[in-house]
Design a protein that fits this description.
By secondary structure, the chain is an alpha/beta fold. It has 24 helices and 29 strands. The strands form six sheets. A nine-stranded mixed beta sheet has the order 4-3-13-12-14-15-16-17-18, with helices on both faces. Strands 9-8-7-5-6-10-11-21 form an eight-stranded mixed beta sheet, with helices on both faces. Strands 19, 20, 22, 23 and 24 form a five-stranded antiparallel beta sheet that branches.
Length: 717
């Protein structure tokens, strides 16, 4: 995606001349000293090959053609052994960091709403040794409370250092950790706690007061609530028999119980480490059973794709630890001597919602070198930066665009642009602290435009990863020297991937030029199935004649000539229209969601209709400006519910769809504008910001009955 510009021809010639002279003077010594020659060679290498020379054969990384990797370190076949190895090797080094809260205050907005604002101090750190002692004491304390090995214990908590300490305690003592997203609604929490039959839950004081308090009476087996912060509190309305503890008090119990640790049963590789309840896009969450060997195989594959990973690296943790992407990323860091500094989406950047104006966000203070993200967050960054570019003076904007296009051309050849990086993109790079060397995106497809933008403006590789909770997060990750976009890389060294024919959708592994089909992942990272759901387990998992376990993902992919995978469709997203055409809802959303006018979009289609419609969360600044140009006045809600403005937005969407070369039947002919954003708290997207189509359908059918056409529109989700 080239950025367009208009500029004075004389000025354009001058800038191009300066760039040409600079390139000529610096190119030869830079090319020799920078290792660019090797990088270019690596980018052109074959990255994965089929095991056998026949259609449907699994692809493996060229680094694991003969044997799939399964352990990080010799003899470390369970997660407690991995941590003990890391503790011994990195002993006094910093591991987990938390910012101290200096001040909290309420800020009243012009609308009358009250926002909580915080001023945060420096990061305080726990060393590997200190974390190990705290985890050991907490595990022993749980045993004093009656927790038995190979029984379930739940954690319902925000991402923070205590979450990881709890996890390590459970891994050491062979407790099966049940993870629940902090943003789950009451029914989903009740379902997870009752299905897993937990008697103890670890949570924060805030979540206990706002969510657990309301549903605790619906969890009859619950006996202990442990808060990671604050003083123990019990409400009169709590059912009798439930005791509230603090994490510190449980650790104190464990520190005094000397004999407990000797009696603890240590896990074996096949034992369940985590039962991870997914915030799935349909229905109640499913508990995925992930063993110690599943997680170790997965993080082994992930670590291999991050060159020079080690003690100099700092990772910022802010995504939900109940999501396999964040848990795996942090386990990779913990096992390699990296520091993990904790954050949240509300305190991440200087402009984040909870940061007091004038004070520093977490990335500014921590200055991480490694970061994981999801496409929704990257798309927001992309749009915010482009809005600021559009507000620049004409000279500044054109200089930025010239530098952008120049760098895009250079990195496509494998070259870097140190002058542009330091002079033009430095301010953008500082939005994430200025030291990011690798940015990994997962959880959902990342658009090619956003990926390229992040590559250029943040001056670091932006790798896409592909994996599922059911594959312990592992599948593929792009290599750091691969600057192509729209692909998710080659299979990791821990697994192999094959494509299975899907006749209904017309995808075959004999297709030319690239084999296509449903993606199946096989390897030791493929999990044990769904907790207490044998029927669904049999549907999604199979075992071949060699005993290898395979996960049927439901995603459609194609393998390119160099062995890299591209996700091209999803079985659930493919809808056959009334006239017989197949429509990919994901394709439509990917083509339109980077429009400045759109913050989020969900496309819908039905086999009983011949057209596509879309639900849109518009960008407030862009839509307000469009309304002003059209002479429409009103509040934000009035603008969004205006039939006139819907028509105007539809015109812009139709133009963008045509430019994106969507077929006529793929272009939405009706839209609905939503004044409210879709967040995990609303239940309309998952914690990884994937669309929940069923919930979105139900929400808009019920909330806007005056849209007559929708009342009889039968959606296929």
């Amino acid at each position: 995606m080239k950025l367009k510009h208009t500029i004075n021809p004389v000025l354009l010639q001058l800038i191009n001349f300066i760039i040409l002279v600079y390139s000529f003077i610096t190119y030869i010594p830079w090319y020799i000293l920078s290792g660019s020659r090797q990088t270019i060679a690596k980018s052109k290498q074959i990255k994965a090959k089929p095991v056998k020379n026949k259609p449907g054969s699994p692809y493996r990384s060229v680094n694991s053609l003969h044997c799939l990797a399964s352990v990080l370190y010799p003899g470390c076949d369970t997660l407690d052994k991995v941590f003990k190895y890391a503790k011994t090797k990195f002993k006094d080094r910093k591991l987990l960091g938390t910012r101290e809260v200096l001040k909290e205050e309420d800020e009243i907005q012009p609308s009358g709403k009250v926002f909580k604002k915080v001023i945060l101090g420096k990061y305080t750190w726990l060393s590997y040794d200190e974390v190990y002692v705290k985890a050991t004491n907490f595990g022993n304390g749980l045993a004093v409370l009656g927790q038995q090995p190979k029984t379930n214990i739940a954690i319902f908590c925000e991402t923070r250092a205590e979450w990881m300490i709890v996890a390590q305690a459970c891994f050491m003592c062979s407790y099966q950790l049940v993870t629940l997203y902090a943003t789950l609604g009451g029914p989903a929490i009740v379902h997870g706690l009752n299905e897993s039959e937990v008697t103890t839950i670890i949570t924060s004081k805030e979540l206990m007061q706002t969510k657990l308090k309301e549903i605790v009476s619906q969890v009859p087996l619950l006996r202990h609530i442990i808060t990671v912060d604050g003083k123990p509190t019990t409400w009169a309305e709590f059912p009798k028999g439930i005791i509230v503890h603090t994490m510190a008090s449980v650790q104190a119990m464990g520190a005094k119980a000397d004999n407990v640790s000797k009696q603890q049963a240590r896990p074996i590789p096949s034992d369940i480490a985590v039962i991870m309840y997914t915030s799935g896009s349909t229905g109640l969450p499913k508990g995925v059973m992930i063993s110690h060997c599943n997680l170790i195989a997965g993080i082994t594959g992930m670590a291999e794709r991050i060159p020079h990973l080690g003690e100099k690296d700092i990772y910022i943790g802010y995504l939900p630890l109940a999501h396999v992407l964040e848990l795996s990323a942090e386990l990779v860091c913990l096992s390699h001597g990296c520091r993990i500094g904790y954050s949240s989406p509300q305190t991440l950047a200087d402009q984040s919602s909870k940061i007091k104006k004038g004070s520093k966000g977490d990335v500014t203070m921590l200055r991480p070198t490694l970061m994981a993200s999801v496409p929704e967050i990257m798309d927001r960054i992309y749009k915010n930066v482009m809005n600021k570019v559009n507000e620049m003076t004409s000279f500044q904007r054109n200089l930025f665009i010239l530098a952008y296009n120049y760098k895009m051309e250079q990195i496509s050849k494998g070259y870097t642009t140190p002058l542009c990086d330091s002079l033009i993109f430095r301010k953008v790079r500082m939005l994430l602290g200025g030291k990011i060397r690798t940015l990994l995106c997962g959880g959902a497809p990342l658009s090619a435009a956003t990926q390229r933008f992040m590559n250029i403006c943040f001056c670091c590789p932006v790798g896409q990863g592909y994996g599922l909770t059911e594959s312990a997060g592992a599948g593929t990750i792009t290599e750091v020297w691969d600057y192509t976009t729209g692909r998710v890389g080659a299979p990791l060294v821990c697994c192999e991937i094959k494509l299975m024919n899907w006749e209904e959708g017309g995808y075959y592994n004999t297709d030319k030029p690239y084999p296509r089909g449903e993606i199946l992942i096989g390897g030791q990272n493929v999990t044990m199935g769904y907790y207490k759901n044998e029927e669904r387990t049999k549907k999604d998992f199979t075992v071949d004649e060699n005993g290898l376990r395979w996960l049927h993902t439901g995603d459609i992919g194609e393998f390119h000539a160099d062995g890299c995978l591209k996700i091209i469709d999803r079985k659930k997203d493919l809808v056959k229209l009334q006239a017989g055409e197949y429509v990919s809802l994901g394709k439509i959303e990917a083509a339109l969601k980077n429009m400045p006018l759109i913050d989020n979009i969900c496309a819908y289609a039905s086999s009983f209709q011949s057209y596509v419609i879309a639900f849109v969360v518009p960008n407030q600044k862009e839509l307000t400006e469009l309304a002003r140009k059209k002479g429409f006045k009103g509040t934000w809600e009035e603008i969004c519910t205006s039939a006139e403005m819907e028509k105007e937005v539809l015109k812009v969407v139709a133009e963008a769809a045509s430019s994106a070369r969507l077929e006529k039947f793929e272009i939405p002919i009706k839209i609905h504008l939503s004044p409210d954003p879709w967040t995990p708290e609303t239940g309309l997207v998952t914690d990884a910001f994937k669309l929940r189509r069923r919930e979105l359908t139900s929400h808009y059918q019920l909330s806007r009955v005056q849209w007559v056409e929708l009342q009889s529109f039968e959606f296929i989700c």
